[in-house]
Amino acid sequence: MNTCDNAKAHFSDYIDGLLTPEEQAQVEAHTAVCAECRTVLQQVTQLTERIHTVAAISASDAFDQNLRARIMGTFPADPKPSYKRTFTFGFSGAAVLAALTFFVLSTFDGSNVETVPAGISGAAPKAQPELIRQDALPHPSLASETLKKDSLKNSPAHVDQKIQLVGQEK
Amino acid sequence: MENQVRYENETSDEVLISRFQQGDNYAFDLLVKRYKDPLINFIYRFLGSQTDAEDVLQETFLRLYKNKHYYKEIAKFSTWIYTIAGNLAKTELRKRRRRTFFSINQYGGEEKDYDIPDDSNNPEQETNTQITDDIIQEAIERLSPKFKEVIILRDIQGFSYDEISEMIKVPLGTVKSRVNRARLKLQADLQHLMKDVD
Ligand SMILES: [Zn+2]
Asked: Tell me, what CATH number does B140's domain have?
């Protein structure tokens, strides 16, 4: 290991403590006599340690709700082209989301609320309740199918009876 | 409630994905809850934008939702989901490069796009504090994708070389050599901010 390139090729393993004692001694022998490599090794070591401490980024508060809406938009129901679902969902997506929120809220009892995790299921509930009226749904059957398909609803057993009634229309 | 918490905390990723594959959508919720922050941090390092990173993260979970049956138990779930997220992040980078093809000021050049602090009088112990998180992020963004990917996985996310090798489907020796070169590139890029410590 007498060239600079050779030594530098081992810097990462040196920093990570992955060299054999012999290899480690070789790196140290080179950096002892080569000022340039010594500086590089010191700086790479410092930078690597510094990168480990970069503050982590978190997902925003709206993330769960956005993901939920996107999944519902992508998987409104089983694909049956004759239903023109893709088209109608564009108009009704917001209403469906609102309706889902309503049903989620209206079907929880206290113990449910307690056990619902602060995940996606818990992220939706704060929509404005005044917007949530059943008659605001242009396509109730779509809404019901969406609900039944909704992966984010964690407790299908709590889906309100009236949803199933609407679903039975088709 | 206690059972709930224990289920959330102690159920392995692999059990959760398996339950999700069998139709338990609550397991999907838990996987999202478990992975959204580590993954957004990972994706953000590629893109440098929270909004774009959230878009890519949504797409990642959408793929998980859509392709849940593609996951096979031979792989760790974390490896699988990071592979998806990394590929989507790199795709987003390629889209950006196409969009900025005619732009003069490209990422990846040697030019610095931030102000260089006057560090001539700083004592050496301040070396690390003047290299802010933003400076590091910008330096990572200037790396080419293959170096960016490994440095993020290794030094930001803390994965082992073996795990990285599995995630990016590149031999272990290549991963190690890329990490080494990426670290040297960052040092070359930021050395003007670091004092000699001799
Ligand atoms: Zn040397």
From this structure: 1.10.10.10
Distance (angstroms) between ligand 1 centre and the Cα of A3 equals 6
Of the residues B64, B183, B195, the best mutation for testing chain A's interface (the one with the most A CB atoms within 10 Å of its CB) is B183
**B106 falls within a domain:** no
Q: Which domain holds residue B129?
A: 123-198
Angle ∠(A97,A98,A104) on CA atoms, nearest 5: 90
Q: How many domains does chain B have?
A: 2
Q: Are A34 and A7 in contact (CB under 8 A)?
A: yes
What ipTM was predicted for this assembly? 0.80
B50-66 helix and B77-99 helix, angle to the nearest 10 degrees: 130
Q: pLDDT by residue (tens digit) across B79-96?
A: 999 999 999 999 999 988
pLDDT in tens, B110-148: 444 444 444 444 444 445 558 999 999 999 999 999 999
Residues B83 and B135 in one domain: no
Indicate whether B129 and B90 sit together in one domain: no
Best CA proximity match to B135, nearest among B106, B114, B111, B156: B114
Please give the residue of chain B at the shortest CA–CA distance from A122: B29
pTM (2 d.p.): 0.67
CB within 8 Å of chain A, chain B residues 99-138: 127-128, 131, 133, 136-137
